[in-house]
Amino acid sequence: MEERAAELAGTKEGARSAGARLRRALRGLAVALVWVALAVVGAGWCVTSFGERGVHWRGMEVRLALRPAREGGTRIELPPLGAIRAATHRAPVELVATLRRVSLDTLRETIAEAPSRSDLEREFRATSAQALRSFGAWCVAMGALGGLLAPLALRSRRPAGWLGGPLLGAAATGALLLAVVRGYDLDAFERPRYTGSLREAPSILAAARDAFARVDTLSQRLTAAAHGIGRLYSRIDRMAAPPRNGNAIALLHISDLHNNRAAAGLIRALAEEFGVAAVVNTGDLTDFGYPVEAQLWEVLKGIRRPHLFVPGNHDSPEVIEAMRRLPGGLVPDHEVATVAGLRILAAPDPSAGRAGAGNVDTAPAAMTAAAERLARAFDAAQPPPDIVAVHDRRQAALLIGRARVVLCGHTHTNSVAIEQGTVVANAGSTGAAGARYLDRPEGVPLSASVLHFERNGALRLLWIDRVVLEGTLGEMTVTRTAIPPPTPPAAQAGRASPAPGSAARPPSGP
448: domain range? Predict the structure, then answer.
């Protein structure tokens, strides 16, 4: 009996010991699971809270971050416009790229350098690859730091716990990033989702693709037109015209480029083939007057002629300063400048004096005051100028019948008219009105004019050649308009300007 009792006692003790071991094992497993969970949660919290990294490229600052998500993907945020999202991967995390800042000064330097597209793409890829590697390494480091949550929360006293937590956090973060990289699908951006104002992006992008196609066509047609200028000129030069001698002066009149760089080749070809002595540009080089737009003057360097610029209502002080830096650039302000032997009185549009970008619609009262100021400058010029150059014809309204020649632009319509003995020549738009060309199915005519003078004692304007490329890009014409000998207006040189408030005011117009 005693032996049986001892055996039973031993069995019970063994059961209790086994139960204790099982409870210890389960408790250890639970602690381990909690430890792992805390390490992973700490890694995720640290990565999402402190894992942002900045990327700088060509004046743009982009912040990269990882966010937990039910559906994996990539989100590109463009505040305040909205965001673009694509389901690029399956891992339960979202890669977020947010545009934080754009430096216009750096962008302006980039435009001035004019790097090739292939160089920019190569540089962007290298910068992106380096940035993503750095971002991944930083996330792994933040994951390791977050893994310390496990030993901290459990008050671990073992060195293995303090080492294992960071290792587990780093491993979990690395495994997640590896899953993102391996399953990443760039083609997903062909099926993006848009939020905010960017919901209209599909239609905008479709219009942009069409616009780029039309710009490419425009550039090709302009290049072809430039190559054909010599043949066109040889034809019109055989037209009946007054004889020319060594005192002939040709002047190229351009206007309203509106940021259209595609016209630069045509302008250079006109200057060379017509043998012009100088260029008069009656304004609207830009659309908004931003400093970055002022870099358009770079494309005019190749003309290698004196270049007189008359600021238009779309230009600004930054544009004016840029044009003054142009080799041979002149920007007279109610002053007479002598260019190729011609005395030219020029005045900027009142809106060109605004500080930075702003309203480009010149108020009627401001235009009236500008016309009166220009008339006073005309009276003060002795002898009277050969040409008056303005952007908007209304600014020279008080000089019709007094000035010999008025050059202008603004309306984007090439024309020549003789009004009360004054030749009024509008160059139209040498830049096809810029982006407005893309808004109209029929396009906008691209045009310029060449004025031919002869100085045989007195200066005389002989004829004007008007070069027009139709908006459909299908036909280019050169029309020569002969100018009859002038009939000097009565007392032109000594006639006083109408007093402010009189009936002779510039008419309102577009």
Answer: 204-355+364-482
The DSSP letter of residue 151 is: H
Residues in the chain, how many?
Answer: 510
What would the two tokens of residue 239 be? 């037209």
**Phi and psi angles of residue 467, each rounded to the nearest 5 degrees, phi first:** -105, 120
Measured CA angle at 410 (ends 405, 413), to 5 deg: 80
Q: How many domains does the chain have?
A: 2
pLDDT score, position 500: 35
284, 163: one domain: no
Same-domain check for residues 260 and 373: yes
Q: Is 481 exposed, middle or buried (0-12, 13-18, 19+ CB in 10 A)?
A: middle
Helix (H, G, I), strand (E, B) or coil at 429: coil
Residues 183 and 213 both lie in one domain: no
Using CA atoms, how far apart are residues 435 and 215, in angstroms rounded to an integer?
A: 9
pLDDT tens digit string along 391-445? 999 999 999 999 999 999 999 999 999 999 999 999 999 887 554 444 445 567 7
Cα–Cα distance between 383 and 195 in angstroms, integer?
65
| CB 510 within 8 Å of CB 411 | yes
Q: Each residue of 310-326: pLDDT tens digit? A: 999 988 888 888 889 88
Burial class of residue 132 in the structure, from the number of CB atoms within 10 Å of its CB (0-12 exposed, 13-18 middle, 19+ buried): middle
Does residue 185 sit in the same domain as residue 208? Answer: no
Instruction: Report yes or no: 400 and 406 within 8 Å, Cβ to Cβ.
Output: yes
Cβ pair 142, 47 in contact under 8 A? yes
Secondary structure (DSSP) of 25-94: HHHHHHHHHHHHHHHHHHHHHHHHHH--EEEEETTEEEEEEEEE-SS-EEEEEETTTEEEEE----SSEE
Assess whether 63 and 134 both reside in one domain.
yes
Low-confidence ranges of the chain (pLDDT < 50): 204, 207-209, 211-212, 238-243, 435-440, 489-510
